[in-house]
Amino acid sequence: GLSAFVVEKGTKGFRPGKKENKLGLRASDTAELIFEDCVIPLENLVGKEGDGFIDAMQVLDGGRISIAALSLGMAHGAYEAALKYSKQRKQFGKAISDFQAIQWKLADMATEIDAAYLLTMRAASMKDAGLKTTQESSMAKLYASEVAVKCANEGVQIHGGYGFIKDYPAEKFYRDVKLCTIGEGTSEIQRLVIARQLLKD
To answer: What HEC string does the chain produce?
Structure first.
């Protein structure tokens, strides 16, 4: 099986590679790591030999709760920006928040954010209690990340043309949230994990 090691900066044969030019979350650097004829001493082994993959999978449950929380923050930010703009923007003599089409978008965003919050808090509470959270973490991550993408999309829509301009925060939320449906396992993987848990004997 796979084994995990700590590879310290300055280790011979280990160096950073190209820094990626990302769509979103650009304040967080992402770069490749290059290991070339890199020899790691046995004392740098993390956990038991051959258990690296199992350990990584166990860490994912907690990581998925973190991505759910990150998604919630961005969803709420996109919602708050859209709500504020809808009250300020005037069309046909009144604020666009007075139009039912905008009201329904805001209502859906607020409701889905609350539902995502509850799923995330359930998974986090279970994790804090030392319980197994594979299904609950995946549910929270799947739902919260997809809600975040939807809220960011609706936020751009509510802003109209201004949602496509960097003077307003809507476009940044739109770019940043997409990673939440990919990192720590894609939405497709979350559905697979949830289904496997549901179908266990």
So the answer is: CCCEECCCCCCCCEEEEEECCCCCCCCCCCEEEEECCCCCCHHHEECCCCCHHHHHHHHHHHHHHHHHHHHHHHHHHHHHHHHHHHHHCEECCEEHHHCHHHHHHHHHHHHHHHHHHHHHHHHHHHHHCCCCCHHHHHHHHHHHHHHHHHHHHHHHHHHHHHHHCCCCCHHHHHHHHHHHHCCCCCHHHHHHHHHHHHCCC
Q: What percent of the chain has pLDDT over 90?
A: 95
pLDDT digits (tens, 9 = 90+) for 4-62: 999 999 999 999 999 999 999 999 999 999 999 999 999 999 999 999 998 888 888 99
The model's pTM: 0.91
Q: What ranges do the domains of the chain cover?
A: 4-46, 55-198
Instruction: Tell me whether residue 184 is one of the annotated catalytic residues.
Output: yes
Q: What would the CATH number be for the domain defined by 4-46?
A: 2.40.110.10
Which listed residue (112, 136, 154, 184) is catalytic? 184
How much is the pLDDT for 1?
Answer: 85
Classify domain 55-198 by CATH architecture: Up-down Bundle (1.20)
